[in-house]
Specification:
With 232 residues, the protein is an alpha+beta fold. The chain has twelve helices and five strands. A hairpin with a 6-residue loop joins strand 2 and strand 3.
Length: 232
């Protein structure tokens, strides 16, 4: 846990983010200039990441069939592999993310990055901290504040000993989309989305090649078609 918190702090320093503030993961991707595509993938594959041999370019693919909260966790998970993994290589993340030390480390890093302890403590009522009993209202508010799935938040609360086992069991038993809806939330955090979104400078670089007459117009449109764009 201490190592995960330390690396998460280093990443926040790189992003010029405060220790406690929520992070917008699309903004993070743009800051780090990681070419990222959101595409439908199989149920067992959440995302992948890779970088060029000289580490000058990084790429990420995120499963748009998963909930938006899960997508944020996948991005944070892949940031660990791109920046802190001892043996960086093309990486696939999926349902079996506790299979080895590297995956467990990436999960702990992602939790610490998305939900810093100080940020959680700042937003949990004192009486709930004192009793280790997080209310449903507080849990949902934290999930939308930090952009994480319900299970991801509950696991983090348990790890930090902010929620007792009975509280954890109760929170995990809830139909969270229903609970969020009856409280006026739009449920979007718990649903898939972002399909087709592309973040990065791929298209800009392709246009520069075309403008500099290094590729033909046909090749230019072929390059754009690889990221889901076509000539209109």
């Amino acid at each position: 846990m201490e190592q995960a918190d330390f690396l998460a702090s280093k990443m926040r320093e790189l992003l010029n983010a405060s220790p406690a503030e929520p992070l917008n993961m699309k903004t993070v991707i743009r800051q780090l200039n990681i070419l990222t595509l959101y595409r439908p993938l199989s149920d067992k594959l959440w995302g992948l990441s890779l970088e060029t041999t000289d580490k000058s370019k990084k790429f990420m693919l995120v499963n748009s069939n998963t909930s938006k909260g899960s997508q944020h966790f996948t991005i944070a998970h892949e940031l660990y592999h791109l920046y802190f993994d001892q043996k960086p290589e093309p990486h696939f993340s999926g349902a079996d993310t506790e299979s080895n030390l590297s995956e467990r480390s990436a999960n702990r890093f992602a939790s610490a990055l998305l939900m810093p302890k100080s940020g959680l403590l700042n937003n949990i009522p004192t009486e709930e901290i004192q009793t280790s009993t997080i209310s449903v209202d507080t849990a949902i508010r934290l999930e939308y504040l930090f952009g994480v799935s319900h299970k991801t938040l509950v696991v983090r609360l348990k790890e930090l000993r902010l929620a007792s086992q009975s509280c954890v069991d109760y929170l995990l038993s809830l139909s969270i989309k229903k609970e969020a809806w009856i409280r006026g939330y739009d449920k979007s955090l718990y649903e898939p989305g972002n399909n087709g979104i592309i973040i990065g400078d791929y298209g800009t670089l392709a246009k520069k090649l075309f403008d500099n007459e290094q590729i033909s117009e046909g090749h230019y449109w072929e390059l754009l078609s690889l990221i889901g764009h076509g000539e209109s």
